[in-house]
Amino acid sequence: MTIVGEAAALSLGRLEASDCQLLRRFFDRLSPETVYRRFLSPIPSADHASLRLLLDVDQRDRAAVCALAEGEIVGVARYARPAGSDTAELAVVVADAWHGQGIATRLLAALRVAAREAGVTRFHATLHADNRPAIRLLQRISPGLRFYVSAGTYETTFAVGRNG
């Protein structure tokens, strides 16, 4: 874990390959609804292969930042982009007990900085149409954002932007 910012008993760090146990404990604390909203599918538990995939970060084409409280992960934001693209797929998840406390906003701000440094200029997001908190978050960071229905989900693409 590399700490990149700290405030009010919450620190932000870069998720690294060695964080497998931290990520497993985080996943185990997520409600089935939160898991469903993040992965667009019910996933009863995170197996080792899935965790390794989530921890496959190079801080260029695949990056992840996490929020930590008392040494445990309470939120993760990540992006992944295809080689040669300037658009990356975005995903954010915050532990249920920490919803509504601005953690996703802080995580996205840190992820946007990392994305800009890596040459990512746009994020693409896919989410359930009933995920009102995520929709409001994305509209807040990218005013005027439009969503498109695709295969029963909302999709959107927006500029990473200059503001973190």
Can you offer a commentary on this structure?
The protein is α+β, with helices and mostly antiparallel strands. It has one domain: 3-Layer(aba) Sandwich (Aminopeptidase). 30% of the residues lie in helices and 32% in strands. The chain has five helices and eight strands, in the order ββαααβββαβαββ. The chain has an eight-stranded mixed β-sheet with strand order 1-2-3-4-5-6-8-7, with helices on both faces. A hairpin with a 2-residue loop joins strand 1 and strand 2. The protein starts with a strand and ends in a 5-residue tail after the last strand. The relative contact order is 0.15.
Compact description:
This protein is an alpha+beta fold and 164 residues long.
Overall shape:
globular
Instruction: Tell me the number of structural domains.
Output: 1
Percentage of helical residues?
Answer: 25-40%
Mean pLDDT: 89
CATH architecture: 3-Layer(aba) Sandwich
CATH homologous superfamily identity:
Gcn5-related N-acetyltransferase (GNAT)
